[in-house]
Design goal:
This is Ig-like domain-containing protein. By secondary structure, the protein is mainly beta. 9% of the residues lie in helices and 57% in strands. It is built from two helices and 18 strands. The strands form four sheets. A five-stranded antiparallel beta sheet has the order 1-2-7-6-5. The protein is elongated, with a radius of gyration of 25 Å. Bound molecules: 2-acetamido-2-deoxy-beta-D-glucopyranose (3 copies). The site of one 2-acetamido-2-deoxy-beta-D-glucopyranose has 5 residues, from strand 11 and strand 15.
């Protein structure tokens, strides 16, 4: 039984090696959004027929050099996002080329998505390559930034701190004094349309007593039931 499964995998692997070579990579770009790049390379004696792009299994663009020429660029707008696609071939018959997708969110994205690139060669071989890329809605929380909000009375033992971090989904900010978790006085978050990230901030007021005590603020985000922490900020008061 196990043997059969292994053989099947090996077979699939062998078949994809003889098909079109395809690679899809993606990353979050500061102040821009996600950039996903599909690159391909067919056999030298093959000719590119088409490149199809899919979002969650739905085709949203096709590029055919025969019809569109050396490149095709398209912009797709929805109320939530703008998708900019630029496909181009770098060899005569399209044996090599790439499609760059830039996905700029206008509103906080909620769901992960799968981007698929499918490259097909011309007859008589009709070779094909297809690859998925999972885009996770996650930009880990930035390092916490702690500031002391100056009080009107410098001799007062009361200190108010402000902590902030940005990310996607919105980071929550956890305060600790020494080893103890403490409750923030209040927390806010706002969507920043320039960075396309949530900016969270939280303030905490406490009374100085033990000078050896350390106050820390740790940004945390939860994604697919995983907790991702940003670098905490600490203050010795
Ligand atoms: C195309 O090239 C590959 C090697 O890159 C070769 O194995 C294959 O036989 C060639 N096919 C034709 C139809 O020339
Ligand atoms: C705390 O920091 C955030 C982000 O830098 C800022 O928007 C907010 O006004 C600050 N809050 C206070 C009370 O200063
Ligand atoms: C929004 O993000 C931009 C770019 O990252 C940054 O310069 C700006 O200060 C942020 N605005 C707020 C209100 O945090």
């Amino acid at each position: 039984m196990y043997f059969k499964i292994i053989t099947l995998h090996l077979l699939v692997g062998a078949l994809t090696i003889t098909a079109i070579d395809l690679d899809v990579t993606g990353e979050w770009k500061t102040d821009l959004g996600w950039e996903v790049i599909c690159t391909w390379e067919t056999w030298r004696n093959d000719t590119l027929q088409s490149v199809r792009l899919y979002n969650n299994g739905q085709q949203f663009m096709i590029y055919r050099p025969e019809k569109h020429g050396q490149s095709r660029t398209e912009i797709f707008r929805t109320p939530e996002k703008i998708m900019n696609v630029d496909c181009a071939i770098t060899t005569d018959k399209g044996q090599k080329g790439r499609c760059i997708l830039i996905l700029e969110p206008y509103q906080p994205p909620l769901y992960d998505f799968t981007y698929t690139c499918e490259v097909s060669g011309e007859r008589p071989m009709f070779r094909m390559g297809k690859k998925d890329f999972h885009v996770r809605v996650l930009v880990p929380p930035s390092n916490a930034e702690l500031t002391v909000i100056t009080s009107n009375d410098p001799s007062s033992p009361r200190v108010t701190l402000n902590c902030s971090s940005s990310g996607l989904p919105a980071p929550s900010l956890q305060w600790t004094v020494g080893d103890n978790k403490v409750q923030a006085d209040f927390a806010r978050r706002g969507w920043n349309g320039t960075s396309k990230l949530w900016q969270s901030w939280s303030s905490f007021t406490y009374t100085r007593s033990d000078p050896t005590q350390i106050v820390a603020c740790t940004p945390e985000a939860s994604s697919n039931s995983e907790i991702i922490r940003g670098k905490k900020a600490v203050l010795h008061i």
